[in-house]
Amino acid sequence: MSAGLVVIGNEILSGKVADANTPFLARELRVLGVALERVIVVPDEVDTVAGVVADFARRFEVVFTSGGVGPTHDDVTMDAVAQAFGRPMVENAGLRRAIEGFVGSAVNEAHLKMAMVPEGCELVIDGHPAFPTVVVENVYVLPGIPEIFQAKLVALRDRFRSQPYHLRQVLVREHETDIAEFLNATLAAFPELLLGSYPKLSNPEYRVRLTLESKDESYVEAALADLLRRLPQGFVVKVEN
Amino acid sequence: MSAGLVVIGNEILSGKVADANTPFLARELRVLGVALERVIVVPDEVDTVAGVVADFARRFEVVFTSGGVGPTHDDVTMDAVAQAFGRPMVENAGLRRAIEGFVGSAVNEAHLKMAMVPEGCELVIDGHPAFPTVVVENVYVLPGIPEIFQAKLVALRDRFRSQPYHLRQVLVREHETDIAEFLNATLAAFPELLLGSYPKLSNPEYRVRLTLESKDESYVEAALADLLRRLPQGFVVKVEN
Questions:
Q1: Can you tell me the mean pLDDT for A61-72?
Q2: How many of the other CB atoms lie within 10 Å of CB of B24?
Q3: Is the Cβ pair B14, A37 closer than 8 Å?
């Protein structure tokens, strides 16, 4: 299963807030076995958001949006998702009743904006918080507040559970330039291996972290054995899961 | 001046590493008065990176890339930037001499990969670290290691200095739904205002942080006065710079 994430937020692009939802989603999806293939951060502009949501919905099996959901002028995500699929925004009678029941006689236009959703969307009652998650085709609309984004994602995750990745890691004492030929040789023998090479500055223990991954556990183990056979004695500090 | 950032890295999409370069760049550019308009995170795939670099280079006045620069198989950014502009990769004689001088007789293919750059690129000697920054047209190719990304960006920043933004912030005691009408009224009177509304959960002091911004200081101050006049007494906790 492939996934994309659209983060909506001037506050992130202008450096006021560091986005916490991307790393959370990336880790969760990896554990679930879902391949996050692209993340994009865009401003609070309906046409821009609609364009990238439409593009992502075609490219990936599941798309998440983060942010831009709420009662104020800069909350444009629902309108944008509706526009991406050419659907009108309609008032959901159940949501309106729930909002009126919660707010009582103080209900105003801003409260009722929260009852407007893209026509024909699915409302997933996840119970956390009370407000349901809006799903339009393969797009899950999540709020940007990290506590709520994360709680909703956890509540939804069984929908996306897939075959997990198997990961092995090798910590290496030498520079990347000294091991590149061995990595290339292992990749030639195991072309489907997901092989990452990450130098670490000023670490007393190792210089490079190698990550070997696949959904096929025996493939990872065979590739790991191949690489360990090629690396000269003394290069490897440690092998980890 | 408008800017875009292309982050290249399977390690970020797979949740192994939280990207520290986006928040750093966002903050730096804001201080410089540059509008960061889009960030995209893509895997280590030449065609994918080339496609988004070409797209961003057309859309924005300046583009930064983060990551994928190095001697191993997963370092594809130079090739991708060359492809984005339809330029061949060529060996730079000065870089080759510098590498050979540094490495000596142990020089290998992986070292010499670092001397390959897109034809006709600019090499900016920023001194930190010794390796220059490669610039192709409006695209600045920066390494992903945060310490080096940040040092290089700081060394380059005077190239991008623009008119700064002026920011005022208002902390509000009430819910967003209770202030939305006042925000809308101020925006109608000050349509060029950059106005953000950010709810904060479980903060004992305030419920919403409002940010008012413009490159025109007197416009921000007039909009702030307008908003403060509209907000009912007792709503405002504090006004900040």
A1: 96
A2: 18
A3: no
Adjacent-strand bridge partners of A66:
A7, A142
> In chain A, what are the domains?
2-160 (3.40.980.10), 166-240 (3.30.70.100)
**Rounded to two decimals, what is the model's pTM?**
0.95
How many residue pairs bridge chain A and chain B with CB atoms within 8 Å of each other?
Answer: 170
For the CA atoms of B220, B221, B224, B229, what is the dihedral angle to 10 degrees?
Answer: -150
Q: Find chain A residues with C-beta within 8 A of B15's C-beta.
A: 23, 26-31, 36
Q: pLDDT averaged over consecutive 10-residue blocks of chain B (241 residues)?
A: 97 96 98 98 98 98 96 95 98 92 91 95 80 95 94 93 96 96 97 95 92 97 98 96 89
Q: What is the pLDDT of residue B131?
A: 82
Residues of A with Cβ-Cβ distance to B64 under 8 angstroms: none
Distance from CA of A86 to the nearest CA of B (A): 24
CB < 8 Å to B116, chain A: none
DSSP string, B63-122: EEEES--SSSTT--HHHHHHHHTT--EEE-HHHHHHHHHHHGGG--HHHHHTTEEETT-E
Residue with tokens 């895997």: B43
Helix (H) or strand (E) segment spanning residue B152: helix B146-156
* pLDDT value at residue A128: 63
ipTM of the prediction greater than 0.90, yes or no = yes
| Contact at CB, B111 and A39, closer than 8 angstroms | no
